[in-house]
Each structure stands twice: as C-alpha cells, then as structure tokens.
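The instructor's notes for this session suggest beginning with a concrete chain rather than abstract definitions. Hand out the sequence below and ask the class to guess, before any prediction is shown, which regions might be ordered.
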Amino acid sequence: MVRSSVKTFKYRVGKNQFLVINIFQSAAANADTGNALASNAATVKIFKKDKRR
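After discussion, reveal the predicted structure:
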C-alpha cells in the first residue's frame, strides 16, 4: 500500500522567492511466496508560470 501526502508553500526572503515541497510517502509490500518489492520513489515537476500583467 502506498500513501503519499504533498505540502507546498512559498516564502520570500528579500527579493528571492522560495518554493518548498514536502513529500511524505510510505510503501509496503508482502508476499506469501516469491519476492516482493516496495518502491518509495517520487517524481516532481515544477513549471514556471508566465508573468502576465
């Protein structure tokens, strides 16, 4: 079972603006016979918005 929760927030220091992404994931796997693989991988894409005024 894979559970994930993502929290994002922005903060500003001077002229710079920072984006912080917190990803909390857990993965578990079990099998009666054979092998089981649990992956805890995350893919993050960040898109920059156009500045239109």
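Then share the key points. The mean pLDDT is 79. Residues 1-30 form one domain.
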